[in-house]
Known about the structure:
Blueprint (H helix, E strand, L loop, with lengths): L1 H13 L7 E2 L2 E2 L9 H16 L7 E2 H6 L6 H9 L2 H12 L28 E3 L4 E4 L2 H4 E4 L2 E4 L8 H15 L5 H5 L14 H9 L34 E2 L5 E2 L16 H6 L1 H13 L11 H14 L1 H4 L7 H6 L5 E3 H4 L4 H5 L2 H9 L19 E3 L21 H5 L7 E10 L4 E6 L10 H4 L2 E3 L18 H12 L2
Antiparallel strand pairs: 1-2, 3-5, 4-5, 6-7, 8-9, 10-11, 12-13, 12-14
The structure holds heme C (2 copies).
One heme C binds next to helix 6, helix 9 and helix 11.
Amino acid sequence: MRHFRSFALVLATVAGFHHPNLIAGSPVLRTQRGADSGKHDHANIGFELLINKAFLPSDFDQEVFDNLWQSWPASLRERAAKASVGERRAMAFERYGLTPRPQQDRGNIVDGKRDLADPGKPLQYVVDDHGNWTMNCFSCHGGTVYGRPVPGAPNNRYALQTLTEEVRSTKFRLGKSLGRMELGSLVIPLGTTNGTTNAVVFGIGLMNYRDDQLNLVDRPPASFTHHDMDAPPWWHFYRRPYIYIDGFAPKGHRGLMQFMLVPENNASFFADHEDDFQKVYAYLSSLRSPSYPGHIDQSLARRGAKLFESNCAECHGTYHHRTDAESIAAYPNQLVPIEDIGTDPVRHRALTVAGREHYARSWFAQSGGPERRETITDPAGYVAPPLDGVWASAPYFHNGSVPTLWHLLHPQERPTVWRRVNDSMDESKVGLTVETVPRVPLEKPDVALRRSYFDTRRFGKSASGHDYPNQLNESEKRAVLEYLKTL
Ligand code: HEC
Ligand code: HEC
């Protein structure tokens, strides 16, 4: 099956398409120019903007980052005290789920002097020349695929809550004033399990203080349904007409700017940065999923393909098309009512009809794109996402509650409390390598460690539902699992 993808790539190359493709699993930013170089340049600039341009006030400075280790639990702190600068940085990256920037071609650098290989700068934060660190989209949307940093892969290790708490105590110690994250997190939880965040509520909360044209308005604080979500990968963005798990928002560059809704950014800030976000949009649209690096049993996968076709494709679409246009046309954008899908319903309720109506009237929804799609203000449930590169985006479901594809295919066997034990792939189950425990060990002194456990009994974290795989017998499930590796 793999040759389909290479064939498409050859065609794309001949036609002069050069995407920042994730070829053979290794992220490569291509720089050759072809007939479509305009589109390609925009995508490259979009990537550069995300890692080099701060769209928010900065979160903390280099001095704070370099002193975070003093807030760690005793055993780690002792190790850090003896470590070299590089080792200590690696420990901090590990603790907070940060990664180095992948080394890439340095063809189209915005100002020609950035070093993508600078080990001090993570993919997830913009670090300017004065040492100011500012969160960027990659903090949630740029992670590792089984140990290798891949921009656009969900950051399933991001420890935003722990980082923010330790930035707060470090700023106290250094006598620095607190920023919006350290203050905001006193009233809004940022994420209770590493790799997931309360991101949707950040957006709803901030939108509460804006009118339709994004002017700041005085309104009483609203109450929110806090819940954590696992960020979706960006490599299927190009196939989706609507985004988010409930598919309510038509895709457009303005919609991508919600992330910048902090009070410091006024309405004109958004208009002034539209051009940048057209390039970010081009970058997201240019991404494609990585290919499975391990062994695939091709004849088993072919059997799985037929089963997928008859049991899953109606919702998830079909794969291995020759052109982008065919791939887009083959994705059905299928909305499944919440009672049919049966996965955790909290996200569906958390975004209210009134909230979606406010979005629909707002500047964000008026992208004026060629398609002019309407916002769906009352979606009945969740939309089946495209499954491109699904082997690389564990854990599964919108709340990240299921650690492997095997568990997804075996609803009765999904673990109640689990924790990742290392960064390698569980190749037989295809997903995270996890241990299952009866409960989260609350007696452990390091709260950060507790956040490495996923407890499916907690609010918004259920791993139930999506029982469709039960139509298959065990050997059929085995075949479908093999097929999923080829996507
Ligand atoms: C704090 C974490 C976080 C940050 C930072 C963040 N996102 Fe997201 N993003 C999410 C989560 C969680 C979702 C899923 C929301 C949902 O489906 O309701 C999401 C969804 C999306 C989607 C929809 C994908 C799909 O297939 O449905 C896009 C596109 C996106 N984000 C782009 C961005 C861009 C661009 C930025 C930076 C400007 C950004 N995000 C910053 C967490 C984040
Ligand atoms: C009736 C429509 C429907 C059918 C049939 C269906 N799915 Fe799904 N699937 C969904 C929806 C909706 C979701 C999103 C659920 C959520 O995140 O809460 C989903 C999620 C998934 C995911 C997780 C994706 C991710 O990134 O988290 C996988 C994998 C998946 N389905 C595989 C399958 C397979 C394999 C089959 C066939 C055996 C199948 N599905 C049949 C609707 C369907």
